[in-house]
Amino acid sequence: MQTRRTAYVLSVMALDGAPGNQQRHAYSTVNITVMDINNKLPIFPDQGRISIMENTMVGTLITRFNASDLDSTAIIRYALDANLCEAKNERGIPLKPIDFNCSAYFLLDQFDGTLRVAKVIDREVAEIIKLVIRAEDVASDTGPQIATANLVIDVEDANDNNPKFREPYYKFSITENSKSGTLVGSVTADDLDKNRTITYVLEGYPETLKLIHLDNTTGDVFVFNKIDHEVYNWLNMTVKATDSGVPPRYSRTEMYVQVLDENDNN
Length: 266
Ligand SMILES: [Ca+2]
Ligand SMILES: [Ca+2]
Ligand SMILES: [Ca+2]
Ligand SMILES: [Ca+2]
Known about the structure:
By secondary structure, the protein is mostly beta strands. It has 2 domains: 108 residues, Cadherins (Immunoglobulin-like); 97 residues, Immunoglobulin-like (Sandwich). 2% of the residues lie in helices and 42% in strands. The protein is built from 1 helix and 19 strands. Strands 3, 5, 6, 9 and 10 form a 5-stranded mixed sheet that branches. The protein has a 4-stranded mixed sheet with strand order 12-19-18-15, with no helix packed on it. It has a 3-stranded antiparallel sheet with strand order 4-8-7, with no helix packed on it. A hairpin with an 8-residue loop joins strand 9 and strand 10. The protein is rod-shaped. The chain starts with a strand and ends in a 6-residue tail after the last strand. The site of one calcium ion has 8 residues, from loops. It comes from Oryctes borbonicus.
């Protein structure tokens, strides 16, 4: 351990108590050395907010902490306070430690203060994570010297989920000769990412697509042209749902429309 010495040299003049010019004096030199006692807490201000993308690779550097300490002998060591780590999902609901072991997602090097990804983070699980970091001067002469700082990590969304239809397939039925504009049914897909604006498109044989219309934004399915049961008992189509991510992702499902006989051939 290296100790800073601050040295002062004083010249001291001593006078005796004799009156007037009978007074005698002497000079002397005094050397004073001030030893630095390690008695100051580390200085570790709040670390603000930082963003990382979800799915960032394990080992990626997030940031580096750098606490300071006025004592020359300071030796700073860093640690995460696992008990104070907090994660919230996108609705702001805190995640229980048993569901999301917050501190397990980060690796803090105690010596150099680097914070790295220890486990791939899924934004759909945790969107905001608050870390509490302890900086301790382990060379303290005066008992524990610990300063703590917060760091808020915003997990940015990547488009890593396809839209998902609520049903494995859709089956509707209509009576033949239903008027154009008659509602057949509705399809809905959800997306776990932030790009949840879904566009729906119908795919199938051109002659089938002339009969049925799908609203691109609502997923509502309408009769478009008169459908004759004697020609079609069933209409089979595919619905494609595309999200608004960059690049977009999509999924498909089957849609079956049964055309019921109106008994119009008597
Ligand atoms: Ca100190
Ligand atoms: Ca994800
Ligand atoms: Ca998506
Ligand atoms: Ca995502």
